[in-house]
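Colleagues,

Please find the record for the three-part complex below.
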Amino acid sequence: MAGKINRREFIKIAGAGMGGLAVSAGAGKVIYDYVRENGKPDSITRTPTYCEMCTYQCAGWAYTKNGVPWKLVGNELDEHCYGRLCTKGSAGFGVYDDPDRLKTPLIRTEVRGQQAFREATWDEALDYIAKKMKIIAEKHGPESVALFSHGSGGKWFKTLLKAYGTNSFAAPSYANCRGPREEGYIITYGEPIDTPERTDMKNSKCVVLLGSHIGENTHSQQVNEFTSAIAAGATVIVADPRFSIAAGKARYWLPIKPGTDLALLLAWINVIIEENLYDADYVARYTKGFDELKKAVKNNTPEWAYPITTIKPDIIRETAREMAKNAPATILHPGRHNVWYGDDTQRVRAGAILNALLGSWGRKGGFFFPEKAHLPEFPVPAFPKPKKTFKDTHIGGQFGLANLAISDGVCDATIHSVRDNHGSFYEAWFIYGSNLLKALPNPEKTIKALKDLELVVVVDILPTEITGWADVVLPDTTYLERYDDIRTSQGRTPQIALRSPVFEPRYNSKPAWWIAKNLADKMGLGAYFPWKDVEEYLDFKLKKAGSSLEEMKKVGVKNFERETPLYISKGENYRFPTDSGKIELYSNTMADYGHDPVPQFTSHDEPESGYFRLLYGRSPSHSFARTINNPILSQLDRENEVWINTAVAREWGIKAGQYVRLVNQDGVESNRVRAKVTERIRPDCVYMVHGFGSTQKQLKKAYNRGADDQSLMTRVKVDPIMGGQAMHGNFVTFRVG
Amino acid sequence: MKKMKKKYAMVIDTKVCVGCGACVVACKTENEVPEGLHRDWIVEEITGSYPHLFMEVRSERCNHCSDAPCVSACPTGASHYREDTENLVLVTPGKCTGCKACMAACPYDARFTVPEGYASKCTFCEHRLDQGLDPACMSVCPAHAIFFGDLNNPESTVSLLLKKRQYRVLMPEVGTEPNVYYLT
Amino acid sequence: MKEITITTQKMASAHAQGWQIWGWEIPVYLFLGGLTAGIIVVASWMILKNRGKEYPVATNKIMVLAPVLISLGMGALFLDLSHKLYVWRFYMTFQVTSVMSWGSWILVLVYPVTILLVLATFREGFPSVYEWVEERIKQIRGGRFLPWFKAIVDFAETRKNIFAKAGIPIGIGLGIYTGILLSAFAARPIWNSAILGPLFLVSGMSTGVALIALLSRDDERHYFARMDMGLIVLEMFILFLFFVGQLTSGKAQQEAISLLLGGSIMTPVFWIFVFTLGLFLPLVFEWLEMKGRDIPAVLPPVMVLFGGLMLRFVLVKVCCLWRDMSIDQLLR
């Protein structure tokens, strides 16, 4: 019994003691919380910038609260975003706060690719590069240096390298993304689509999308205008093997067989011509080659297209009539990433032709004529003329109609075993803001090229796969820590936008302009960067345009007056920038180069039994591989999934959420990826979001998450017109369990 | 005459919502929502079977119910209606014990506990309302899918939208009288 | 076919964190609360019927455990709080619509009632302890506090029946409220059944009676063992009604209860630990013992107590499990 007292008393004493402790601790915390909440008001700042989370460069305001990042909000004046940033733009501070960022310059210590680096000072790193560049110029000529660039900061390196004596500038976004679109429209209308797209969607009464997944692709202006059109009752027609978000908004979803879009386009053209639904006045006034076109598509009837596309003939007719009914406020969207099957320039051109028949180019609800603001360049000495250009390489010579260097071609012109047969010549690569090993298919080829180079310089923000292959890694600041050149993109209104720093450069990173300028100084090219600092450079240009750095810091975006009309006026004698001055429904240029003057359908490889075509696309939370490690965005979208049709999954015994591996036609196997079993995709293909499956351990949030579709793209078809690298020709089967 | 209380409602147009999640990030940064937690989220609802499919996309959050079970279940009054409103449900962190009764009560799973311990959720950006601004999710939406206002004002945008368009609410059968309306 | 996806991105926190909002702390608290309720009700009833001689444990001894057990329960409750420093907020207000608020105040009331009942019975229940305490108090400051001590005990003993009359409703309230706590969550299947209140009350009584049986001997033990048999049968019946109720309610309820009928790990946990070990076998053992077989006296009561704890554990966790599983499906 004595024991029981002790226990009871102990509990009571302990209870009282705990209670007392709780009360005093509680009181303490309450007082602390109260004082904290009712203390000083927050100090808030707002700085103008334009976004670099994707290439759209929406202008916005960066807010800090009490000295730390708070939020990013769109600039109301900006036509890129109408004051509303997208998912990624709103998460921009994530990359500023990413603890995995590159922090200091690195110089390679062992064989390239071993990822063995030592930290270096900026002087050391830049001296290293300058010395090597001098040797390369002497031994091989400055033309042997190529630049791969993606992002605003690339401009400074272009200036540097132009001053050095080369103009081999490749953007993976050309041959691996929107190249066919630009060429297809240049051939037809004499002008490219460019960015932001010159689509007048907010006034469209009928929007036709071929695979474009607006909504999952969140270019803010495009989402805004697309949804405006929907809200106003526009008819949406979507041809896509997958029931995308856009398809979910469509009156007509055409679950088209992959690889057959050109047949659908030709059938639409056929219907619109045969049923006299085209804009006769527009066609007569502004196009040439109508009769040849009519002859060429005579047999491309809906009945012909049906077995190819699996879209019923009456649907093809109905949708064609719907397009014509709403013309000229009908737009067949040109898309953006168009490197699908290897005949992509022709396919996009077919769409361009269709738009011409509907009379939508230069008309309200179709395509407007964009204008850019004009800012003069800062005066610098004349650039040297390179003795060799990309066009002198093997690939460059092949694709005469390509307007930019083709990344794959640069690779070819670098790999010793390849180029020694062709007399191509790259010895050094500068890579700015582009993870080539994720951007280009066939990473083994890129690696072969990297191994053969004498110098590899990578300027980037995060330690991605490509930084592992550099000789020198230079840490760029994020866009939030620097000035960049004034944005002068095209639009309905000529606008300029300022990017100004919200914070000082973090760690030991430096802005791209500083790197280029200091490297130029060390290379004796300082005359091409004659301004003291970038503020002087910007203020000079802005003052010439009737503004100033001071003004731009207050407003962020400034509008100018247009000089030409937005649309073609009725009966106007408009001259298109083609050779003939007219829209070329039939292209002599194409014929001269040995290509079909009017697009013709060719069928593409089909998957074997048990294999499924691998399709890929975007998630709204990510800009492909760039943002997978972003601390904010990785909370939204942590890993990708492979979309598998329900019936197919049942056949294979794959359950929703199960992890499977994909094996492609060449035996390459992916890492594990979750299966999304869904009705939203055709049974003959599978779909994944691109950009996951990082192999970089230093990217702690991205490493090993999801699967990499790119490693499965071993089969690449090359567009004979502009060298575009088509990646939809890969097929996968499942490895379950 | 006594001033009528505000009945705050959000109206979301599912016809134009594309499920991009800008609202999720904007809310997260504006309200400094802790890592791994979200005050609003996206739901995609698909009906039918290939190829006859229908999709509704919507952004969800706390519904600020007129008869909120979280308010009635809270033992300390931490979960309460703001005085000048009929239905703006807020949490006073200093009154919250972290018992999670509100989390158990909410049929929409809109609540969570923050690392500091108290319960939290969407507040309709109450701090912005006081400055005459819209909730952060509404301000960012590139599709202009989100509208907000006072349903007790017959001229407000939300009142007019509900008169003009068909709409529904989530789980009306649980009887909580939610005030986030989805235009269909 | 309806596919509802919460896109793997941008998910609600409840989905991100998993819906295990309550861990072991709440089932332990519910069990201890029910056990205390059973003790209070039975002991108060025994006091009122003046059964001190025949049933000494039940009438005069078991009450001592009440404040101990309820304190342990409240300790578990405290551990569950995620904002512990503000626990005192429970006692700054009374929210009439909140069952948890009712519960906080009931718990508070339990203390004075049980302490007074302890004071009223412990001289009769633990005479040697009483003498020991009296001796110790005599020695403090020359026995100054002795008259106070005697007055308090006297006060309690003379009003014993009043306190017992208060104890019955308090005990019943404590027992039922633990069930209503869950059933008030209208949005949750399994929980939103009104039968949880009576179920937890009967289960609480059953565990209280089992504890008394465990700690007593001979006739008293047999008496309460028999009482427990009756309570077990009643509890099984209520459980049966509970299952029927869920199966005949809406889809969510049917889905959730199916987790106890073969759909999850909770099925064997329930049927082995709650039903067989906690209800059926004790019933069989008690019946065998009534028929004269020799069963270790400790066994059935301990099994009943264990079963009571497992019942609470299963009922709390199966709802969390159902919620997690249904969210998991949405994340596909």
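Residues 692 and 708 of chain A are 5 Å apart (CA to CA).

Comments are welcome before we finalize the supplementary table.
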